[in-house]
Amino acid sequence: MKHFRQKELEQMPSRFRAHLINSCTGYKSANLLGTISKKGVTNLAVFNSVVHIGSNPPMLGFILRPLTVKRNTYSNFKETGYFTVNQVNKEIITDAHHTAAKYEEDVSEFSKTNLTESYLDDFAAPYVAQSTIKLGCRYLNEYEIKENGCLLIIGQIEHIYLPEDLIHADGWVQLDKAESIATIGLDGYALPTLLDRLAYPKPNEATKSLL
Amino acid sequence: MKHFRQKELEQMPSRFRAHLINSCTGYKSANLLGTISKKGVTNLAVFNSVVHIGSNPPMLGFILRPLTVKRNTYSNFKETGYFTVNQVNKEIITDAHHTAAKYEEDVSEFSKTNLTESYLDDFAAPYVAQSTIKLGCRYLNEYEIKENGCLLIIGQIEHIYLPEDLIHADGWVQLDKAESIATIGLDGYALPTLLDRLAYPKPNEATKSLL
Fold first, then answer.
1. Any CB–CB contact under 8 A between B18 and chain A?
2. With an 8 Å Cβ cutoff, are B100 and A58 in contact?
3. Rounded CA separation A173/B24 (Å)
4. Which domain holds residue B154?
5. Predicted ipTM?
6. Does some domain include residue A129?
7. pTM of the model
8. Mean pLDDT of residues grouped by 10 in chain A (211 residues)?
9. What is the CATH number of the domain that holds B74?
10. What is the number of domains present in chain A?
11. Would residue A123 count as lying in a domain?
12. Do A188 and B196 touch (CB under 8 A)?
């Protein structure tokens, strides 16, 4: 068993620490955030930090790194009020990852990958046609994390598009049927297989499978 | 393709919406948070909302539901200043899920599962012996999400324990070797298999595999 203490974490090379800390907290989601500027330049960026905030109203959050450099995703949803969240599946890993390359502000990541803009129901931000599960979100608020200047962005989910056969009778979405991807750290892409669904747990009763 | 609009999301049955919204944003991590009260009662609770906040200093965050009912995890790390984050693997899914059952405050979830308390290097909170990857964290701060009363808790990672053979030369941790679990929504547990690791992407260059 390897043990890293605080002092060792402080003193290790910065890239080693970044990989270690990003990956040791477990699998994360892989989503492409789609936005468009007032001038009409689209942007696409991969995020692994989307979290559930609440279901009534439906809200999600994600972490944005400090605004010390210009973040097109941020400036776009601040201008328009809207962004899309497009789930990464097995077929689009490489293109999704490529959206993290540093292109100039007037270059759309859509033009540098095989991913295609899709506009649905007059929503004010582009979806990714190749994503199986797509969410249309309205920007609600942001919270600055004073410890390092990151922002927690809160959005309300206003539209959900997904294949009907993924949705169970109780609303649960079987992501492995969509070949959705889970990420490890900054650059690892893994394909999960469902093992089990477990019933709501009750004290002093054995937990049952729902499958 | 099924399309849920905002009005349909508002009007659907509450449990259906909870399952749908929790699962449609993608796979999440599965971690057991271990704490102990000043009186010495341990607590263990499963969380799927751990996110990366920063690597220098190493920080993670997680979302805690509103404090309208007593949350033992919260009161414990506020009392002691410390908590542990223990990754859920394939072998402990059922016990991890069972920690969400509503036990009285003086009952430790360790006593109601096969999970075992482990105290390492005099850290002030219990680890889970059966977890392959264990983090010791110090509570730093909390941010109230005004939209629904949830809290974003920020902790600094002070200790990391994990098997040495999971760690690549550049610090990246291969979670599938530990049989770490990814979750779908409130009750789905999936086992990921690594597909690829991709090099840092550069503009106008094809993205390369690191494997």
1. yes
2. no
3. 6
4. 26-190
5. 0.97
6. yes
7. 0.97
8. 97 98 98 97 97 97 91 95 98 97 94 98 98 98 98 98 98 98 98 98 94 88
9. 2.30.110.10
10. 1
11. yes
12. yes
